Batch of 2 targets.
Target 1
Amino acid sequence: MSRNNWLLMLSVGVLSLTLISQAAHCADSTEQINNDSCMKCHKRNGKMQGHHAQDGLNLSCSSCHGEKGNHPKKPNNLMVFSADNEIPLIAQNAVCLTCHRATNLGKSEWTHNVHAQKVNCSSCHQLHPQTDPMMTLTAKQRSIECQRCHSVQR
Ligand code: HEC
Ligand code: HEC
Ligand code: HEC
Ligand code: HEC
Ligand code: HEC
């Protein structure tokens, strides 16, 4: 077989492999964000599932966490969502409020109105797991959740 025929067979092989793997990608609609270069180091704790991971939204890790910059060296400009770090909560919540309208949030859960400037969104919500625990609270669990920060009046 001539050299050209080998090259042809090889490229047909590569093409079909590419098609097969593209089909596999379509089946997994959260593939894109989890191929981000952040995942080189964050396979264990960085995987996104749930709403914000959908390929259709076209989010990258940096859409919320900002650019990597010096990270993990310090200092760096990475956005971290947690009550116990030096990034002001207003700056943390502002990331969420670029997409979520405060007025809509108040309609679905009235406490958003009193908390927006005072409590981290991430004190209640978890975005990385498949389901955010806040979205499936029963009435009883909801009142226990409030007592985590507010003492019960007697
Ligand atoms: C070279 C490896 C590496 C890369 C690439 C990397 N990280 Fe990290 N990241 C780390 C290490 C190590 C830690 C834990 C040390 C620490 O807490 O700072 C960490 C911690 C974090 C934390 C928790 C920080 C905290 O203070 O609790 C977040 C959030 C994070 N990384 C997000 C990202 C995002 C988003 C990207 C891509 C834009 C990224 N990382 C890329 C190594 C990396
Ligand atoms: C780039 C836009 C964007 C950003 C930034 C963003 N979200 Fe979202 N979020 C969405 C979209 C889109 C949905 C899906 C809405 C729907 O399906 O109705 C969603 C859904 C949610 C839900 C509902 C989840 C569920 O299971 O129903 C919560 C809670 C939420 N976001 C909280 C947050 C918080 C907290 C932050 C900041 C840490 C944040 N979001 C940042 C776009 C965004
Ligand atoms: C005190 C806890 C708490 C805090 C803080 C909080 N939320 Fe929520 N949030 C909830 C609860 C509880 C629900 C669920 C309401 C329900 O059951 O429908 C919810 C629902 C949502 C939803 C889904 C509502 C919808 O219309 O689909 C979004 C989006 C959301 N929160 C975003 C945010 C953002 C952004 C912040 C920060 C600015 C925030 N939340 C802060 C408790 C909280
Ligand atoms: C829609 C906003 C959003 C996007 C996109 C996002 N994150 Fe996060 N990330 C958060 C929030 C909020 C937290 C706080 C914990 C939680 O909500 O689950 C967090 C927490 C983390 C942590 C700390 C986990 C720990 O163990 O404390 C790491 C690491 C991280 N994210 C990495 C990533 C990587 C890597 C990507 C891309 C694959 C990514 N994040 C995409 C919002 C986001
Ligand atoms: C993560 C902690 C946290 C959780 C959980 C939480 N809150 Fe709050 N809440 C706060 C903080 C902090 C303030 C601001 C207090 C201040 O301004 O001194 C606040 C303020 C309020 C206020 C305004 C009046 C006041 O006391 O200042 C109301 C009402 C309220 N929360 C109701 C609720 C309800 C209802 C729930 C459960 C759905 C809840 N909170 C869950 C932390 C929390």
Target 2
Amino acid sequence: MENILLLAHTEADGSLGKPGLEALATALSLGGALTVGLVGASTQAAADQIAASGAARFLAVTGESFAQPRYATDAAAAEALCRAADCQIVLAPGTSRWARALPGVAYRLGGRVDTHATSLALANGAPAGSVPVVTRWFYRQRMEAVLSRTQRPWVVLLDPGCVAPWTGTAAAAAVEAVSVEPPATRTTVTGYRAPKSDEQTIRPDAKMLLVAGAGWTKKQADGAVHAAEAEQLILGFLRKAQASLGSSKSLVDQSGEGEAVLTCLTHMNQVGQTGSTPRHAKGLSTCCHGEEPHVVGWRFVNQRRAINLDAGCGWARGKADVLYVADAFEVMRRVNALLGA
Ligand SMILES: Cc1cc2nc3c(=O)[nH]c(=O)nc-3n(C[C@H](O)[C@H](O)[C@H](O)COP(=O)(O)OP(=O)(O)OC[C@H]3O[C@@H](n4cnc5c(N)ncnc54)[C@H](O)[C@@H]3O)c2cc1C
């Protein structure tokens, strides 16, 4: 097996986040000599956190200049680590920070990059001498490809949530400092701004996804719209089940069309072809028709259920494991009461 460099950036508290630990687990599964390259304001704690993983070498670019996510500094740090480590395979978690910087680094090194990989493994799980292959989805998770490359270094960004993170006890790691002259920057990070919403509703690690469709804001049997109650039922369920909230495109688009809206939703919640593809063990769709451009975002939701008044909706056509042909207001009132009991 070729030598592997795991590139990871530290979190604000100096630790290594879950995506980094997942990429570490993948790197270890390949069996080559592993070098870890760390970037951050301080890196010793992160190195200690994974010292017992069996990595042969720890390299680090450390300093305040490398604390914030920023293309110029991240790319300079990653390039220096890649050159110092001199490994053929460079594996990194597909965080927004690395997704922005590492394709440019692969270009600088004359290598190639693959993003949104869901695994990196030896072909056919074969032993020594076999080539590593990447799996990734194309055309909005409709087709899965297995591919390999001959160019080196081969930089692979592994999507978070695909493998169990590495766990182990902390120990003392010997870290080799790699010095990098911080490049001139024009970008200053002044803080983080979360999407406008009165509470955090997107929980990627939740076991359960609740999807709200446009039906919640449509006229109901009594001829009236009940958006306020809809919001209260949805948020009540989220709190009780600690679920994540997804939406159909129609519902989140309504804010721009002057129709009744649910204030707990933004375009960040949109699931589907032009939205997200979250990974949850279970999903419950409510008041959503289940059209293909929406359901394609459910590719990685293992067990799917839907509540719709229409027995002929999209979910009934092989897209859900269970369809409750019922009024979602009534069902969710009852579910929330049961959860509260
Ligand atoms: C290029 C392209 C990309 C797209 N990308 C996306 C995407 O990323 N994500 C996405 O979601 N869509 C996407 N769409 C739009 C998609 O095709 C649908 O228009 C959209 O998903 C419909 O949203 P909906 O099911 O919430 O609304 P509607 O189609 O209006 O359905 C509302 C449903 O609510 C039900 N309902 C009403 N009241 C109740 C009640 N009391 N109880 C139970 N059920 C009730 C109705 O029976 C109906 O089935 C895309 C479309 C295109 C063309």
